[in-house]
Amino acid sequence: MLDIQNLQVVFGTGRLRVDAVKDVSFHVEPGAAYGLVGESGSGKSTVLRAICGLAPITAGRVLVDGKEVTTPRGKAFYRTVQMVFQDPYASLHPRHTVDRTLSEPLAIHGEKDAEARILQALREVGLGPSFRFRYPHQLSGGQRQRIAIARALILRPKVLLLDEPTSALDASVQAEILNLLDDLRRRLGLTYILVSHDLAVVAHLCERLLVMRHGEAVEETTSTALRSGAASNEYTQSLIQASQGFTRDAQQPVRSLAG
Amino acid sequence: MTKPLLDVDDLRVRFHLRTGTVEAVRGVSFQLGRERLGIVGESGSGKSQTGRAILGLTPPPGEVTAKRLAFDGIDLLTASKRTLRTLRGGRISMVMQDPKYSLNPVMTIGEQIIEAYQAHARAGRGEARDKALAMLEAVKMRDPARVFSLYPHEVSGGMGQRAMIAMMLVTDPDLLIADEPTSALDVTVSMEVLRILDELVTERGMGLIFISHDLKLVSSFCDRVLVMYAGRVVEELEAKNLREAKHPYTQGLMRCLPTLKDDVRPLPTLNRDPAWAQ
Description:
The structure holds 2 protein chains of 2 kinds. By secondary structure, chain A is of the alpha/beta class. Chain A has helices at 44-52, 75-80, 98-108, 114-124, 141-153, 171-188, 199-205, 223-227, 234-243, and strands at residues 2-11, 18-28, 33-37, 59-64, 67-68, 81-84, 159-163, 191-196, 208-213, 216-222. In chain A, the strands form 2 sheets. Chain A has a 6-stranded mixed sheet, sandwiched between helices. In chain A, helix 4 crosses helix 5 (141-153) and helix 5 (141-153) runs parallel beside helix 6. By secondary structure, chain B is α/β, with parallel strands linked by helices. Chain B is built from 10 helices and 11 strands. In chain B, a hairpin with a 2-residue loop joins strand 5 (68-71) and strand 6 (74-75). In chain B, helix 4 packs parallel to helix 7 and helix 7 (157-169) runs parallel beside helix 8. The longest helix of chain B is centred in the last third of the chain and has 18 residues, at 187-204. The A-B interface holds A 39-40, 141, 170-172, 174-176, 178-179, 182-183, 197-201, 203-204, 226-227, 238-240, 242-248, 252, 254, 256-259 and B 42-43, 140-142, 155-159, 162, 186-192, 194-195, 198, 213-217, 219-221, 252-253, 256-263, 265-270.
């Protein structure tokens, strides 16, 4: 479904040159969920942004459905690939109602039957028709993220790019959104690429994942391997350890990253 | 039994707004010795407002009432502004969530630590400088002299938060309130910051109030945990007995997190019972 070959993303030139992504390759099967894990500055979000055209592809190829993407991306691309952003407080227009937010992609793509599609999209993300004419400030964080997911799904894409979809939410709301994403993937046969700093979230949603650091791929592994603690790479091990919570007695396992 | 360091009885924080009165904290009581106390809750549970009320930092139009709010025998509600000023930053300090916003952007880190120290101790410039450098070393800065002369935007998040901790501990406080001290940091960095905080708190025998939304983190770091929901403490328990939590909210919070160990799906979600907020 999605093939990333030797992707490289560079911002700036000369002294200001930043190599955000260095030679990253991976392949995602149709209907699979693939995770990108890493700390801030590891380039995981930049990979997503490069796929959907929000960051430049300096070198390498991005293939969707076997075809290389064009720059700028065409309408057909956005019919196949949609994105959900991290912060639902920032990614919804504060002065647009839910109805307007959801009808915009339909209008852009010349879709008919907007009303039925909007009601269906709301149903799919577990919200009733009563939410249709609300503004974002009248919704909770979890409800906003559901709207953002509905907006991404309304064009019936095949691939959903998820950039930290739950990190701005409370733990109990995170569980609801993860369940929703899990359920939608099964029902609609979607392909996911999930970016997160939380190893447990990625292992929950994805079958395969790529650990990134400083713009480079550190290790590709499976969530099954993660669960059994079988990570060959030292950095992946330190991430696993850190996700278990604070330990008082352990010898400092993590090499200092800053400072 | 020795006198508690902090005694909070029936603390309430109200905000009188145009749309009515919002009670953010509704009758919180606890006592704190020289121990590590965690306060856990989701957004809007009143955990941060509890921490702020202790320091007298409730923003207007907030109103704080309590049957008793005493620090080391000093009544914080009736104390003069002057007394409060000597306590704040001197004997009670607070570490906030994001070092990007809590450090002064136009002052070097060293100057800020010196300022904090000189505000509470009669000390010459040379002595304050030595103290600041020693403190930067205590929070494991690799090159204290270099960090001393850097501006906050020149350091990483983890370093900024360690500088913040250095600044807060330079006056040797008896009580440290840490409000989500590591939520803005990466996991591996936050473990490092916590380890430093843990060492310093143990070494100096301070009381610590650790406020966080992360139940797992708090229980692995603190001795005792208060779980807050809708402005109330719904459960208080020893951190090591977290697994035996009785309240359905605490149990729900524990279960709804995905873990690396086992694969539960769908994840159990929290059914909020209106009775919990009563």
